[in-house]
């Protein structure tokens, strides 16, 4: 099975395939939000402010009610999110949820 986001796994369900782009979009936009928190702009050498970037990305996740982890590596803001995806029809046979995990990153363009 290969989905739009490059999934190749026979164990991935259609519900996960539908949820993956949603979670990926949230993770990517949270990372972008964090990567906009810069310092040293006037010196001509802008860098990501780690504490402000982390807070900005975490706020973005909170607004979208998604749990995740934010990490900073140099100017790269990495956001990993995970969450439950609920089944409707499979709930009838005892399968109620599965989970989706995705990571995305962003860094500022400084030129």
Please characterize this protein's 3D structure.
With 111 residues, the protein is an alpha+beta fold. Helices cover 32% and strands 29% of the residues. It has two helices and five strands. It has helices at residues 14-35, 50-63, and strands spanning 38-39, 47-48, 67-73, 76-86, 97-106. It has a three-stranded antiparallel sheet. The protein has a two-stranded antiparallel ribbon with strand order 1-2. A hairpin with a 7-residue loop joins strand 1 and strand 2. Helix 1 runs antiparallel to helix 2 (50-63). The radius of gyration is 17 Å and the shape is elongated.
Radius of gyration from the alpha-carbon trace, in angstroms: 17 Å
Give the spatial strand order of the biggest sheet: 3-4-5
Number of β-strand runs: 5
**Which word captures the global form?**
elongated
Largest sheet: 3 strands, antiparallel
Low-confidence stretches: 1-10
- Compressed to H and E, one letter per element, the order equals HEEHEEE
**Helicity level, as a percent range?**
25-40%
What are its keywords?
two-stranded antiparallel sheet; 111 residues; alpha+beta; 5 strands; 3-stranded antiparallel beta sheet
């Amino acid at each position: 099975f290969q989905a739009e986001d490059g999934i190749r796994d026979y164990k991935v369900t259609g519900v996960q395939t539908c949820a993956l782009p949603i979670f990926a979009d949230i993770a990517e936009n949270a990372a972008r939000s964090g990567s906009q928190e810069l310092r040293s702009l006037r010196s001509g050498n802008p860098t990501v402010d780690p504490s402000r970037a982390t807070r900005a990305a975490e706020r973005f996740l909170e607004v979208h009610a998604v749990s995740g982890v934010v990490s900073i590596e140099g100017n790269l803001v990495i956001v990993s999110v995970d969450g439950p995806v609920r089944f409707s029809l499979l709930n009838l046979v005892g399968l109620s949820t599965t989970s989706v995990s995705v990571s995305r990153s962003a860094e500022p363009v400084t030129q």
